[in-house]
Design goal:
Two copies of one chain form a homodimer. Helices cover about 30% and strands about 35% of the residues of chain A. Chain A has about 190 residues and is an alpha/beta fold. Chain A is globular, with a radius of gyration of 16 Å. The interface between A and B is medium-sized, with 31 and 32 residues.
Chain lengths: ~190, ~190
Amino acid sequence: MKLLEDRIRKDGNIKAGNVLKVDSFLNHQIDIKLLNEMGKELKRVFSDVEVTKILTIEASGIAIAAIAAQYFEVPVVFAKKSVSINIDGSVYSTKIESFTHKRIYDVIVSKKYLSAEDKILVVDDFLANGCAVDGLIDLIEESGAQLQGVGIAIEKGFQEGGKRLRGRGVRVESLAIIDAMNDETGEIVFRQ
Amino acid sequence: MKLLEDRIRKDGNIKAGNVLKVDSFLNHQIDIKLLNEMGKELKRVFSDVEVTKILTIEASGIAIAAIAAQYFEVPVVFAKKSVSINIDGSVYSTKIESFTHKRIYDVIVSKKYLSAEDKILVVDDFLANGCAVDGLIDLIEESGAQLQGVGIAIEKGFQEGGKRLRGRGVRVESLAIIDAMNDETGEIVFRQ
């Protein structure tokens, strides 16, 4: 999606260690007009599949999921994470390792909001190693719901998440895929 | 706002200890159509003030803030919370006590995204004791930005937050104010 690629080139900030900071428009300050265009594009890309709910994970997935949900006309469910949740029989739960925060989170969704009748589109802001999406897919499988696809704003194509998910047959559509970036030159190569 | 009051009566779940669960439509599963109507109403209520940014706090404030921002045509900034953030000179920071989680969080906003030129509308899903809003106002004051008002989805009018904020001259507009609720009878009294 050219609009997003242009914005990443303009306002993205590449740091050492393959870190891309997009907190001026995506995950701290949020450009809502840009998110609207991204939401429309996700709907266009997934127009061929039935979706009954969008599933995301707190916190930075919520804005893009909520804006996109307007075009799918479905509710959003966001998985909650905590270092110490009392897991009981009322929730689906899994564990997700965060490399950013060097910590393992319990992640839960209430059983009331995912069921075997649901057709789920997973939406998140970033896909890198894919741990968050793996965890959301665990929750979907536990519920018996059907995974229709994964819609991502920015995929780091040089990390293994996207490749691994596609390899196991998951439909992953990313609005921008970065194949290489250089924190010294600032150069970013997007996948065509 | 009658639409929200009706929804709270229909799907809200009153628990002992003055707990109101609205996680079927507001803060776990999110009814985006309802949020759209709430966003429009916040714009109508605050149509007389200039707003350059909406400020909220992760996680459950993000969806209502993002949807409302479409009607104000401004970006959203969400404050980040953590039990252990490295506070450095690049952020405004404060501490917020969470009664729900019985924990004190460091809450930060990057100095890049709040400035003395900004006119801020604070948006959040709930107002009870007001600690989260107090913390956001601390960050706004630290930045020199102007607080234009606080827009809340559901205010627990029987807790002190709304009264205290209004008492110090803050304009607080809540789409639904609960003056009393009874977990045995299920009765809810809304402020007129």
